[in-house]
Amino acid sequence: MKRRTKKDFHRFIVSILTGILILPAAACNGIGESNANLITQRGETDRDVTLFSPMEKTAPDAENMARNAADTTIRMAEEELGVTVNYITYTAEDHMDKTYDDVALDRARSNMDDLYLLNPDTIRRLGEEGLLMDLSDLACTDNLREVVKTANTVNGKLVAVPQEIVAYGLFINKDIFDLYDLKLPETPDDFLECCRVLQENGYETPVGANRWWLETFVFAQAYADLYNGGNTGAKVAALNSGAHRYSDYMRPAFEFLQEMTDCGYIDAKKALVSEAIEGEGEDFLSQKTPIVMAYWGAANSDTAYGNPDFNMVVIGFPSSRGQMPVMATTGYGIGANADHAEDAKDVLEIILSDEALQTYAEINRVISPSKNVEVECIPALKPLNDQIQNNVYVLGANAGMNVEQWGNTCMIVRMLLSGSTVDECMAEFDRLQDEALQK
After folding, report:
1. pLDDT in tens, 380-406
2. Of 50, 136, 363, 420, which is least packed with CB atoms within 10 Å of its CB?
3. How would you classify the pairing of strands 48-54 and 115-118?
4. Which residues contact 232 (CB under 8 A, 6 or more apart)?
């Protein structure tokens, strides 16, 4: 474990945005495994709160607005409450290491921290295990958008609250598209045609992919009608009862991914071992790859795609209903048996207040979880933002579904990348659904 002063920490530590990136992680401190990738920043007051969060692998001096935004709100809480928030951050060297989610699960199950910055599937699992505190009594939750409450309510308890709503989209080199008179794709067929033209004009692999985010294509295509065609509650209930099958929703999207790999539009072998942005970012920025998928904040951050040498535009994923953003809400959770639970709740009250969320959103230029906070987005994000403001999107995580979506779909996509057939992938969805129905 490495110890750093607060000054060193704020210069060195960078995280992808507030908890969205499913970062690979290696091992967990204090539970019998290597702790080489853990970095701890110790507190300086008698009232300490420990926060476990991800960090981004990037240059130490790189500007990262997401990290700066989070740190700014944390400092607001420290100054008002007289507490110190001690960060423990984690990253991994490569795809062979444990994921950040695995380490977060280990730490939460061992009650090692007070606050956790969690991804959707981890929120679901820890919530079901009763290891996260119900946050619904916090005053700051009164102003939450309904989509946030829906995504983070497990067994009737609001177990996590984010500082931003994370929207995923397609990042497109508009200059290259204009060069070949390509229109921004609306449907899966449109997208495949764009890839065909790009490949024929020398872009061997038109789409840069990694082992985490190809599921965004799946969600957009599988659930476009479920979330935008009316009767969403009834459709989810039919899935939960077994009257409808998840595999029926998922099959067309997996057939689409299979066609992409068969045509060479994505490199399945590279994607299977590539970390998010790290695997495809260089090719996109050097204009070798015209298309990547990423989250909203990546368009604002110099550690990702915030300063390209070309005209970039961010749109929704192709679907039967046109360009479709994919929304995922991660969030801060408090351990149900946290040693400093009351101080942790006080910290959340401040960093999730409308005042702090306004500050966070202005620095990071993101979609706020509060219905009272809005910030104008950069021009590149306008197409994605327009869809979201018109309530056109699908959820990548929905705690109301009895089969966890984000993590399970990610793993089944990896099955496809590893050579499994579409039928085998659908059989895995059926297995998960049958298992959930037996509970």
Report:
1. 999 999 998 888 999 998 888 989 999
2. 136
3. parallel
4. 226
Which amino acid is it at 124? R
- Torsion of the alpha carbons at 298, 304, 308 and 314, rounded to the nearest 10: -20
Asked if residues 145 and 139 have their Cβ atoms less than 8 Å apart, the reply is: no
* Cα distance between residue 64 and residue 66, in whole Å: 5
> What is the model's pLDDT at position 7?
31
Cβ–Cβ < 8 Å for 360, 73: yes
Taking alpha carbons only, the member of 326, 196, 220, 216 closest to residue 276 is 216
Q: Report phi then psi at 18, rounded to 5.
A: -70, 80
Distance CA(93)–CA(15), nearest Å, equals 15
* Contact predicate 58/303, CB 8 Å: yes
What pLDDT was estimated at residue 55? 64
**Pairing mode, if any, of strands 157-158 and 153-154?**
antiparallel
The phi-psi region of residue 327 (left if phi > 0; otherwise alpha if psi is between -120 and 50; otherwise beta) is beta
* Distance (Å) of CA 146 to CA 6, 151, 385, 394: 36, 9, 18, 14
Tokens for 268, please give them.
């399945």
- What Cα–Cα distance (Å) separates residue 166 from each residue in 16, 18, 314? 11, 9, 14
Tokens at residue 11, please?
Answer: 């210069």
Which DSSP letter does residue 184 get?
Answer: P
Report the pLDDT value the prediction gives residue 45, as an integer from 0 to 100. Answer: 53
Beta strand 38-41 with 2-4: parallel, antiparallel or unpaired? parallel
Token duo for residue 30: 């204090």
Residues of the chain with pLDDT under 50: 1-36, 39-40, 57-65
Query: What pLDDT sits at residue 194?
Result: 98
Query: Which of these, 47, 129, 40, lies nearest to 90 by C-alpha position?
Result: 40
Q: Which amino acid does the sequence have at 170?
A: L
Contact indicator for 199, 193 with CB cutoff of 8 Å: no
Characterize the bridge pairing of strands 115-118 and 84-90.
unpaired
What whole-number distance in Å separates Cα of residue 255 and Cα of residue 421? 9
Token pair, residue 243, equals: 């009257």
Environment class of residue 147 by beta-carbon count within 10 Å: exposed (0-12), middle (13-18) or buried (19+)? buried
At residue 85, the 3 state secondary structure works out as strand
User: Taking each helix axis from N to C terminus, what angle separates 406-417 and 120-128, rounded to the nearest 10 degrees?
Assistant: 120
Find the DSSP H helices in 201-306: 215-228, 232-241, 246-262, 268-273, 281-285
